[in-house]
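=== RUN LOG ===
request id: a7f3
mode: sequence -> structure
chains: 1
length: 285
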Amino acid sequence: MAKDTDFTVLTGREALARLADLPMRKRRDTARRLIYKKNQRPAGLDEQIILLDALRSEPALTEIDRFYALIAGGHKVCEEVMVAEAEHWLDRFLEAEAQIRAMPIAFGLRKDRTHLVFSALNVALNLDLLTGARHADRLASWFREEVEGLQLRRMTPYLFNSSSNTVKCAGIVLLGDPDDIARIARLMRKLLSYGTEINNPLHWWIFSRFKAPKHLAEVSERAAFGSFCNSVHRLTAIEAAAAATGLEARRAALRGVADLCVAQARPAQKAALMEQAETRLRAMV
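=== RESULT ===
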């Protein structure tokens, strides 16, 4: 296969056939590219789901890459509001929970357990909300255990990146347990603060001498910074909900939290998730 194969014009099964013809190392590198670079996958979301479903068990990949295929596939199923499929994909997340939680802490965004866990939780919580929050308590317990068990002395600068999914998870978890909102708000504030504190180059003097631009106008904004700004907006909404008094005020504030925290790659996806969030909010007493 030529190096410049355009997977965007292929179906999911055609893409898998092309992968199968590759030598093992090239197959692994290409499969990883298709997991982590969505603009290089087949154009149709249904075709992407077929591809990612198969990559969950691709032998050329590492275990963590296969988990990210699960995450990417679950994300696309939720994006397409495929409710029946979402139940099956959520079951896969629940089945994989122990394995995901057993992964080691490592250096690198796509190697680190912390980023993997909160990426998985974010997708699982959205799939669960979309399908009626049948496993909300289990996922909330997983979330709390992970947040409370963060080993800060072993965290890497990539905690800055992971904090985005963590705060989104918090917003969805709180729909089912608003009594815990003040404590969760405090923890999320500390998380964002600490993630910023450790997000520095390991060798600052090398960075400042050889990589830093000369003038502020030349600085390129990091993609992670935009996500961080959104996380601050979500935290502000969570803190406002914690400060709200009275049932209706708390409901309204949590509605604002949900509006910022549910998955919203497409308007139809956000509408479906907000409808389910509203059901949970109406159940508050």
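=== NOTES ===
DSSP finds 13 helices and no strands in the chain.
The chain has one domain: 62-205+221-282.
=== END ===
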